[in-house]
Amino acid sequence: MAHPRGGPERATIRRVAEVAGVSPSTVSRTFSHPHLLRPSTVERVSSVAAELGYVPDGSAQALKTGRRGVIGLVVPDIANAFFPPLIRAAQTAAEKAGLSTIIGDGNEDGTKEAAMVGRLRGQTDGIILASPRTREPVLRSLHEVTRLVLVNRDLAGVPRVLIDSAPGMRSCVRLLAGAGHTRIAYVNGPAASWSNGERLAAIEDACREHGIALTTLRARLPDHDGGRAAAAEVLELGVTAAIAFDDVLGQGLLAGLAERGVRVPHDFSLTACDDTVSATTYPPMTTVGCPIREAGVAAVELLVESLRGSDDGDGNGDGDRVRRLPAEMVVRGTVGRCRER
C-alpha cells in the first residue's frame, strides 16, 4: 500500500495485529507489558512488527501505561573490563523483556553517580546501579523516589545482586600458603567499593588461618597504570606474593614487575579477581572467576519483577530481594613455589 505522499505506508498497530493474527491490544502489550503474554506470542508479534517496520509510539505508551519501556544502567567506569560483559548481558535481557537501556558512566565518583541517577529518573522506569560508589544514605534516598537494583552493593531493603568472591579469595590465600608463601600483599581497589571490602576481609581471615603476614597497599583506581605503579611499592615491602583487587590491577602489576626484571611465577607469585583479562596476560594469571554476565541478567530480572509487582498492585514489588552468585578460583600460571627475596 502507498502513503498519500507517494512513499510506503507507515505500519500501524492494526496492520501488525492483522498480520500476526492477534488483537491490537495484544500488540500494545507486547511492547508495554510483555510479561503478561506467552513468550511465543511476544516473539510472533515482535517478528511481524520488525518485518513491517512498525515502531511503537513511546510517548503514547507512557501516557497510557505510565511506563516508558526504558531502564537505566549506571557503572562506575565503562572502560573497566568488568563492566562491558555485564552491560551486554543486561541489554540482551532487557530487550527480551521489551525494554530499551540507557547506559551511564559515574567516573568512579559517587556524587556524579547520584546526579546521573537523578537525571535518569524522568527518562526510565527503573535503574540498575552496578558497583555503586554512592554513600548509603544517598542510595536510600534515591531508592525512595525511583526503582533501584544494585549489583555488588549489599544494602538491606534494596533489590540487589551480589557476586560472592570471598570464597575464591580465601582459596587464593590457601594456594599461596601451600606454595610456601608467608608474606603477601593485597593491592586495594577503590575505597568506596563494596567488593573491595569483602575481598579484603576474606583475605585477612584466610591469612590469619594460615599464619601469613599480610600488608595492604593504599586504595587506588582499578586500572592498568595503577597496577604498574603498585609494583614498586610491592617490591619495597619484601613480600613474595600479591593479590590484586581485580584483573586490570593485576595485569598492570604483572607489567610493572616485568619492567623491573621480576619473573612471575619464578621470582614472585600473583593472583587477582574477576577473570576478565587474566586468560590473555603473560603468563596467564591465576584469578577468581566471577559470573559477570549472570549478574547483569539477574539485575534486569529483579528490576522487571519489581515493575511487575507494581503493575499487579503489590506496592513497589521490592521487599528485601537478593540474588547471590558464587565465584571460584581459576588456577593458571602466576603462582609458584616461594623463593625468599
Describe the structure.
The chain folds into three domains: 53 residues, 434 Repressor (Amino-terminal Domain), CATH 1.10.260; 131 residues, Rossmann fold; 127 residues, Response regulator (Rossmann fold), CATH 3.40.50. It has twelve helices and twelve strands. The radius of gyration is 24 Å and the shape is elongated.
The count of DSSP E runs of length 2 or more, i.e. the number of strands, is 12
Give the CATH H-level superfamily of the largest domain. Response regulator
Q: Which CATH class of the largest domain is shown?
A: Alpha Beta
Shape verdict: elongated
* Strand fraction: 15-25%
Quick check: average pLDDT?
89
> Which bin fits the share of residues in helices?
40-55%
Helix run count: 12
Looking at the overall shape, the CATH architecture of the largest domain is: 3-Layer(aba) Sandwich
How many structural domains?
3
Could you list the spans in which at least 5 consecutive residues all have pLDDT below 50?
A: 1-8
| String of helices and strands | HHHHEHEHEHEEHEHEHEHEEHEE
Structural class: alpha/beta
Organism: Pseudonocardia nematodicida
Keywords: DNA-binding, Transcription, Transcription regulation
GO molecular function, one term: DNA binding
InterPro entries: HTH_LacI (IPR000843), LacI/GalR-like_sensor (IPR046335), Lambda_DNA-bd_dom_sf (IPR010982), Peripla_BP_I (IPR028082)
